[in-house]
Amino acid sequence: MNIVVVGGAGFIGSHLVDRLLAEGHSVDVIDDLSVGSLANLADARASGGALKIHHLDAASAEADSLIGMRRPEVIYQLGLLPRHERSARAQGRVFSLALGTLEAARKHGVGKVVVALPASALYGQPTVQSLPVKEGDLTPRGVRGVVARSIVDLLSTYREQYSVEFTALALATVYGPRQIPGSGVVATFHEAALTSTPPVFDGDGRQTRDLLYIDDAVDALVRASERRANS
């Protein structure tokens, strides 16, 4: 199966690429390398699998043409998760990436789009009394949350108007190898342990976090591509 992974040189994307190649798929990575790194794809490049890496802006005409040429059965859009830059302008860019991916899928008849979004932006800070949170109970926080919610609405619009099939995953704190140091609570504490630096806990220390190991996140992404219903 031909698969395109947008953001495939990133932390999560590179692990997904490893899995897809191991399963025998042909993979095209589209990444502008603003956050990701080719070093993350060292194992994939050495695997001998059918991998092509394209240093492109996912919202560009060149990326659209590539998708038209490759005709993938599935596009993974992993470039919409939190970045170090969280300004309103940066979040506008996130929306443009989502729109560009959906337009390419519509134009070129892609069978399935799988999108990863930040769970904290979509669901805010639910109280203990409100747990477990239902999927539809979205309470976006800040500009990042509003943009994430808008992307969910955009996905639904493309499904209803253009029959673009999708699955959106709201990922919590994903951790594991290749994670950028300081990019999450696990990575921060791990770095502190390696450098014998006392970890710093904000607040009163009673906070809770949802943590998701990278292999489990990849498994969810793979299963999402196999799910035919929109969700």
Automatic annotation (TrEMBL):
InterPro entries: Epimerase_deHydtase, Lipid_A_modif_metabolic_enz, NAD(P)-bd_dom_sf. Residues 3-227 form the NAD-dependent epimerase/dehydratase domain. This is NAD-dependent epimerase/dehydratase domain-containing protein. It comes from marine sediment metagenome. The lineage of its organism: unclassified sequences, metagenomes, ecological metagenomes.
